[in-house]
Structure formats: C-alpha cells, structure tokens
Specification:
9 helices; Aminopeptidase; alpha+beta; single chain; about 30% helix
Amino acid sequence: MMKDFPTPVALTQHLVTFDTTNPPGREHACTEYLGRLLESAGFTTEFYEFAPGRTTLIARLEGTARTVPLCFSGHVDTVPPGAAPWQIDPFKGKIAGNKIYGRGTADMKGGIAAMVIACLRIARLAKEKANIMMILSAGEETGCQGAYHLAANITSLGKAGALVIGEPTSNYPFIGHKGALFAEAQISGTAAHGSMPDTGVNAVYRAAEVVTKLQHFDFHVPPHAIYGTPTLNVGTIQGGTTINMVPDRALIGIDIRTIPGQRTGNIIEQLQQFLGEDVTLTCLTAADGVSTDPDHEWMREVFGITKSYLREQPIPRIAPYFTDASALKPALGNPPTVILGPGEPDMAHKTDEYCTISNIETATEIYTEIALKWYHL
C-alpha cells in the first residue's frame, strides 16, 4: 500500500535542506531521497552518476496507457547562495506569509516538489494505466552535465510522448528557450616586476579594452518574432597572480544567448574576427535552443489547462535561460516540450530567493491535470 506523501510545500521545504550547491553539487542524497519517495508509489528507479556524488534519477511508472510516457523533468542542483548576506537561512525552507524562502525554492525545488507530488497522485489514481517518466538531474546549473551524460551514455532512456520542464515561469507555459554559448577569451601579456611596469605588457589592461569592446558587439541578425534578439554578457574576468607583478594572462568569461538560426561555430568565428588575433577564444559550453509549435495539439491542450489558473489566454513565449531540454528533447525523440514551473523567473539566483506557496500548489494542480488529460482520465 502506498504511504501517505507530503504536501508540495512540505516537500519543497525538505528539499531545500539538502545543500546541493553547484559547485560542488553533492546531489546524491537529494535524488536518493526523491527516488525512495517515488518507489513507495510503485515507480522503478535508476541512478546515474557523471561524477562521484553527482547523481541523476530516472523514475518510471510503466502502466498500459499509450506506448510512450509523459516525461516530467527538473534539476536538483542550485547555484551558491552568493556573497551578499541572506536575511533568512538559505537551507531551512522558512515560511513567511505566502512565501517559502531558501536557495533553490524558485530554481527549481518548488517545481520538483510540485512534479513529484503530482506524479504520486497519478500513481495513486491510475497506477495500472499511467505511463510516466521522471528525470531529476544533477549538474544543470553548470551546463546540463547530468542531462547530457544521460543523452550520451544511457541507451535505455527511451522515447517520450511529451516533456514538461519545471523551471521557473510563474506557471506560464513557455514553448521553448534560447540557446546558450559560454566562451572564454584569453588575453596574453608579458610578466614583469610591479615596480617596473614599462618593462612588461599588462594583460589585465588589454582585457579591460576587450571588455569595453564587447559592450558594442553586434550579432548582425534580425530579431526573432518570439525569441527576440541574441544577448552577450561578460560574466567573469580573472587576471594576475600577485599584486606586485605585471600580469601576463587574463581570462574573460562570455555568456551568449542565441536565437533560432544562429550556429555556435559561426558565432565564435564572428566574435574572433571582432576581437582580433591577439585574443584566443575557447567554447566552453554550447546548448541548443528549444522550440515547440504553439499550434501543436498537446501545446494547445497545455495552454487550455493553464488558462483557467492564469485567468488569461497564454500566448507563445520563451524563456531567456536554457534548460535540460537542450539535451533531453532530442534524446527523447524530440517530443513537444513545455517549460512550466511555479518559481518566478526573476527570483532565480537571487539573495533571499523565495517561491510563493500559492504558485507551488497551483503548479501541482496543473501538472496533475496535464497528466490526467494525457491518460484521458
């Protein structure tokens, strides 16, 4: 007999207590807990590590309905709390009013909790019929490592009929997301004693010129009707080894978000020509964008379900961030994919991150209804 399961809010609180800050990750305890919870409802589970302790969970409820499952997916890792002090402990899941606070509440442990509880409900209602897959991944925040590991190494992953990604959207159904390209620019100089800077070439000064130049980089592509324009952000800059030495190397981390029609190789080539031969560019991560036709039958069904909760008719929108769908959608046979979760997008990665309790509860109802309609229940 299935045990009683927690409320979605209580589960969110508990998930926040697992410190899955990435780096270093340490997702195993969290995914193992979720795996045992799903096993209690009749799911079978498989655990995969792309590195020690970096564990991704696949859970399946193999009923008789349809030949391919409905797949729910999310990531259990979070970004670090950051340097700014929190007013509330980031790993306690404290509730204040309609908000639950903690690192990962919005991005995206609130979404995972809602998905898991919805799937437990479906298992209780229609265990013999429902055909569900859950993929709860490690390493998403640093380039979808867990998802890409599954896609490259797990031949038994199988296909999905539709894919729901629970990233923060305030429960608005997004039809896709931009692609991502993370690049590193290396600038070289000549080392010298800090008291004699004229005898060296300062790589940090040269890097500062590159950063200023990057502010004016133009992709020279027209805006997309839904995806808008590509973006470029300088996220990190590192240089020098000690204060009394002319630095001979500097590194700049560049974050590019792409729109349909752009190709990684072309962007790197374009950027290299713009910056010149004195800058060495290296592609660190490239994740494709994701898109589903808003007129697809299942997407229209999802729009119809969310309309009653949003009290407005959804229109095609996309997420500016990238998700595990970059790896999972092609690996699962390119099913229609919606990005839909309770977190507010602008709360992701922020100090004193929170997710509203009402959004988590609503997401649980939406996910349940999506599954019920998928199985015609």
